[in-house]
Design brief:
Elements (H helix, E strand, L loop, with lengths): L7 H9 L11 E6 L3 H12 L3 E4 L2 E5 L2 E9 L5 E3 L1 H4 L4 H22 L12 E5 L7 H12 L4 E6 L4 H8 L4 E4 L21 H10 L1
Parallel strand pairs: 1-2, 1-6, 6-7, 7-8
Antiparallel strand pairs: 3-4, 4-5
């Protein structure tokens, strides 16, 4: 039976019940995908007694089909490229999309990392949290970026996702914890009573509280 969550905090609490094997482990860090994943991740980090941080990932989408990624950008200059897709693009298009997404990544990094050290995942178990998986493209990019940043083990945790996205992520991550995978998925917003757009202030507030 499909569950509708009251809000992202309730979704995080229910998801945390499935992650208890990671409680009190010194190598675990919980990473909220900005912005919608952060309120979910905040609850999980508190329940696991693990540090909370954010992962800023910008998907590099095809100019005429943004959901189709030819690569991704992450913090610390990490760039992941999907060559079979990227090779279909004009180099000028690649340059323009990369420039635009790098500028937004830099803006968010400056905002969210103000006073915080650079993200260091070397040898860590990372729990990548989002509020849902529709296509799974952003979460897939996040997995690739965290591996480039040295993560030893990568877990993706989401309250709800499409079966197709789940299968794709299962082939990329070491573990995918997805509380529900309805066959007639539709959109992530269908599974929340409150699915407001998370603000930058909410993200910075969650980080400050942690």
């Amino acid at each position: 039976m499909t569950t509708t969550y009251r809000d992202r905090a309730e979704a995080g609490a229910m998801l945390a019940d499935r992650l208890t094997g990671l409680t009190d482990r010194t190598d675990v860090v919980v990473l909220g995908l900005v912005r919608g994943g952060v309120p979910v991740a905040e609850v999980i980090a508190r329940r696991l007694d693990a540090p909370l941080d954010v992962l800023v990932v910008r998907k590099l989408g095809m100019p005429w089909a943004p959901e189709v990624a030819f690569g991704a950008l992450g913090p610390g200059g990490v760039q992941v490229r999907n060559d079979p897709v990227a090779d279909r693009l004009d180099p000028a298009d690649i340059t323009e999309v990369t420039r635009r997404e790098q500028a937004e990544l830099d803006r968010r990094e400056r905002l969210y990392r103000a006073g915080r050290p650079p993200l260091d995942l070397a040898g860590r178990t990372t729990v990548i949290v989002d509020d849902g998986l529709a296509t799974g493209a952003t979460a897939r990019a996040a997995v690739q970026v965290t591996r480039r940043l040295g993560a030893r083990r990568v877990v993706v945790a989401v309250p709800v996702g499409s079966p197709e996205a789940y299968e794709m992520l299962a082939a990329e991550a070491d573990q995918v914890v997805c509380a529900q995978r309805p066959p007639d998925f539709g959109a992530v917003s269908r599974y929340y009573d409150d699915f407001h757009e998370v603000t930058d202030d909410e993200v910075t507030g969650a980080l400050a509280a942690s």
